Amino acid sequence: MNFDFATPIDRRQYPTKKWQQYAEDVLPLWVADMDFHSPPAVIEALKQRVDHGVFGYADATPALRDTLCRWSESHYGWQIDAAWQCWVPGVVPALHLAALAFSEPGEGVLTATPIYPPFLSVARHTGREAQTFELDPPATPDGDWRLDLDAMEAAIRPNTRVLLWCHPHNPTGRVWDVDELRGLAELARRHALIVVSDELHCDLILDPERPHQPLGLLCPELAERLITLWAPSKTFNTAGLSAACAVIADDTLRERFQRTAAGLLPGVNVLGLHAAEVAYAEGEAWRQALLTQLRDNLARLERHVAGWPGVMLSPPQSTYLAWLDLRGSALAESPQQRLLEEARVALSDGADFGWPGFVRLNFGTPSETLEAALARLDRVLG
């Protein structure tokens, strides 16, 4: 099938955070949703479900659970059980829930920066102690962001209970190496940490040489302390339908997670559950076409960045997000605000991710829109 990723869509027609946060003359390339229609199969299935006309409470069906099991095995070789799945109304609520379930007030929740902002607010929202360590940035544009295991271990304190991990990584787009992941697993085991592995972007691998490896598959010894978070929201552009899944192999861990969720989280969106089943069952051809478009968009972005003095981009190996280092540019101070004011392009501020001087750019948009935004940025950064 041919899928249309080229035609711009008027997203101001309905309320949408991405396009209504800023004035109408601003091109928004910030929050992590794409400006593409969801897969046709998902749209058609939702139309049929809406025609039913009743939208009562619902749970994940056996068909949905089986579909995710098949997706996991066919794409990653990870055999998960339907009973391991805990469907929740989003990955961010699940992060907060894990902090509540597996730590006490005042105990430590650890994460690596830069990281997308909800990670940094979990401790504050749950009355835990925020603990962070820094990733190693690349020294050259062709280098990688790296997990510094020594820095991670130095950040672990006697009261650290939970590690929030992002795999693949948002905002850098890094797909972690086996040695990094196994080193992380060993530290988690040695220090008795519960690991929450946010694998939200795992289906959006841009570099075919860097396949995603679920932490639960690569490090089965972590099973008794691992929560893996998945969702169709980024892959199939269904974030507003609020459906995600915590995959928890250990019975005790899963029961504790579910017990904590009772009364705290609402039920999962009934349309989100339906969309998830169809997306995982019928969305593969669309996903492959999307990846082609995203790779083309990334190449377009890289060509422009090459003409921006003092700006460095380590190409993301996954996601539709680019993490730009502007610390060596003329806009080193408050780059997000300067680009908003001078280029009328809205990007995400690196300070919100724990790293001032950076911006995050969302290139999950039609080429026409991306090119228009990049031309504006050329005039300021070129």
TrEMBL record:
Keywords: Lyase, Pyridoxal phosphate
Highest taxon of the lineage: Bacteria
InterPro entries: Aminotransferase_I/II_large, C-S_lyase_PatB-like, Class-II_PLP-Dep_Aminotrans, PyrdxlP-dep_Trfase, PyrdxlP-dep_Trfase_major, PyrdxlP-dep_Trfase_small
EC number(s) reported in the record: 4.4.1.13
A molecular-function term among this protein's GO annotations: lyase activity
Cofactor: pyridoxal 5'-phosphate
UniProt keyword annotation of Lyase present: yes
Aminotransferase class I/classII large domain ranges (all copies): 25-377
PANTHER family (UniProt xref): PROTEIN MALY (PTHR43525)
Family of the protein in this entry: Belongs to the class-II pyridoxal-phosphate-dependent aminotransferase family. MalY/PatB cystathionine beta-lyase subfamily.
Name listed for the protein in its UniProt record: cysteine-S-conjugate beta-lyase
Top-level taxonomy: Bacteria, Pseudomonadati, Pseudomonadota, Gammaproteobacteria, Oceanospirillales
